[in-house]
Amino acid sequence: MLLELRSPSTQIDTPWTAEIPLHLRYLSPAEGGYSSINVPSPSVFWACNTEEGTKFPNSPFDRTNLGYDGLFGPRTLFWHVTPETQDGNLNHQIRVPVLDLNKSKWVSTGTAAMVLMGFAYIVFKLASVSWRRGYGSHKAPVEVEKKKKQ
Question: Which of 5, 76, 105, 137 is 20 to 30 A from 19, comparing alpha carbons?
Answer without folding.
Answer: 76
